Amino acid sequence: MEIRRMKENELLSVIKLATGIYEYSAKPQVQDPAMVRQFYDYMQPQALTEQFRAERLLLWGAIEGQTLCAVGAMQSDAHITMLYVHPYYQKRGIGAAMLQEMAGFAEHVLRAGRITVHAIPAASAGFFIKNGFTQMPEISSGVDFCPLEYRFAAYMQPVPPKGKGVSTGTLVFILVVLFLLSAAAVVVSIIYSLLLY
Fold first, then answer.
1. Domain positions in the chain
2. Tens of pLDDT, residues 81-97
3. Residue 136 and residue 149: Cα distance in Å, rounded?
4. Where are the beta strands (DSSP E) in 13-97?
5. Closest by CA position to 124, among listed 89, 82, 70, 94
6. If pLDDT is split at 50, 70 and 90, which confidence band does 5 have?
7. In 76-197, which ranges are E strands?
8. pTM of the entire predicted model
9. Which CATH number is correct for 2-155, 3.60.20.10, 3.40.630.30, 3.40.1280.10, 3.90.25.10?
10. Hey, how many other C-beta atoms are within 10 angstroms of the C-beta on 104?
11. CA atoms within 13 A on the CB side of 177
């Protein structure tokens, strides 16, 4: 099994496989007709070709022999827009391997701090969670999708909850006050020791 970046002349094969898998596996689980329309609007060959040429869309494929058995796509901002594995090839680790390949590219080439995906249908979120993704708290999920992210270790920093963080100015003020209090304590202890002798 070879996982590699796909070329522009392979874009129609990517669209055909992704659409076929979507219609077989995902579409029956999506309840909102607007979400279904959004998929078909996104999969327009001309628009995807323009994004590909402008390097805003990156494509991967898993190929066994001459058969394209899985496809993945990610925008240049490290947002995964598709990851589809043909049902015959599922449960073999191909999706996880493709996800790892895309994540490595996002971290090392795009220098992204995280990779994101809107798992559609929401039931597919389990695959991403199993591979280290967590739900994005700033975007509420719905019945048909679940927003997820994976933060790369080099960029891992705790994200303070909204409205509960400490501003830089407040932190500087606290540090200055602590410094002044400790300096005052040193001065008082020196004076006290001089008075005792």
1. 2-155, 166-197
2. 988 888 899 889 999 99
3. 6
4. 57-64, 67-75, 79-85
5. 82
6. very high
7. 79-85, 114-119, 134-135, 146-151
8. 0.70
9. 3.40.630.30
10. 12
11. 6
